[in-house]
Write a structure and sequence with these properties.
single chain; four-stranded antiparallel beta sheet; alpha/beta; about 250 residues; 12 strands; globular; six-stranded parallel beta sheet
Length: about 250
């Protein structure tokens, strides 16, 4: 059966990848699943320098899901390029690198560092707080989303996917802004922030529940009549073939 799909100009052998942050950078799960079976591996977020993340405990099980406040712990781009990219290149799967940062300069530094590396796509996590704008997440303002997309595109040689935040009134406005900035695809994440009064989303947890379907479906149905060509995907989790398009079980 031919299951090939074209995502933002990159051909995957099938439409299955993993949600960033749930799969490490592949090595952590290689003994449990054959990575060759995946259309792509989406790595955990990578920043320009190592981030220690939050102190434990930082994960708690709740009904229907979990609360987590990992804090985007990651080894930094130098170690990632030295260790994780060569590991993933052993497998017949596309590599999508999730990029995180606290300023536009952070994102651009990572995009520039990856420009000549053997990775297939970049996924820009704009749920991160912009320290230069009082901590509001890049993805919570359409203008900020458009601006950060434009900046990253100046350095990236791979197709750019913008990972949108669900913590907005209208996710389609952010999606259109990212498209105006030049991205090739958009992805809706499913973690809903439990943001406290001080606005620190890295410190306080987000809630991941069993389904992220409403945002993914709303993004596809409201944003573009040519949804497949536009490169829109969702990350609600796959339980069967009916979930292969990000939660729209009516296909």
């Amino acid at each position: 059966m031919n299951m090939k799909v074209n995502i933002a100009g990159v051909e995957w052998k099938n439409p299955v990848t993993v949600a960033s942050g749930t799969f490490g950078s592949g090595a952590e799960f290689a003994e449990f699943i054959d990575l060759n079976r995946l259309g792509a591996v989406t790595t955990k977020g990578v920043a320009n320098v190592p981030w220690p993340g939050n102190p434990t405990p930082r994960v708690a099980e709740v009904y229907g899901g979990m609360m987590n406040a990992i804090g985007l712990q990651n080894p930094g781009i130098d170690l990632f390029c030295e260790r994780d990219i060569p590991f993933l290149r052993q497998y017949d799967t596309k590599i999508i690198v999730n990029v995180c940062g606290k300023s536009a300069e952070d994102y651009c530094e990572v995009a520039e560092r990856l420009a000549d590396e053997a990775v297939d796509m970049l996924e820009i996590n704009i749920s991160c707080p912009n320290v230069k704008e009082g901590g509001i997440a890049f993805g919570q303002s359409p203008k900020s989303a458009e601006d950060i997309t434009k900046e990253v595109k100046k350095y990236a040689k791979q197709p750019v996917i913008m990972k949108l935040s669900p913590n907005v009134t209208d996710i389609t406005a952010t999606a259109k802004a990212a498209q105006a900035g030049g991205c090739r695809g958009r992805r809706s994440r499913r973690g809903i922030s439990d943001q406290h009064a001080d606005g620190d989303e890295d410190r306080y947890p987000s809630a991941d529940f069993c389904s992220g379907e409403p945002d993914g479906r709303r993004l596809r149905s409201s944003h573009s009549p040519n949804r497949r060509a536009d490169g829109i995907s969702g990350v609600p989790g796959c339980e069967g073939s009916d979930h292969r398009y990000g939660g729209d079980c009516q296909r």
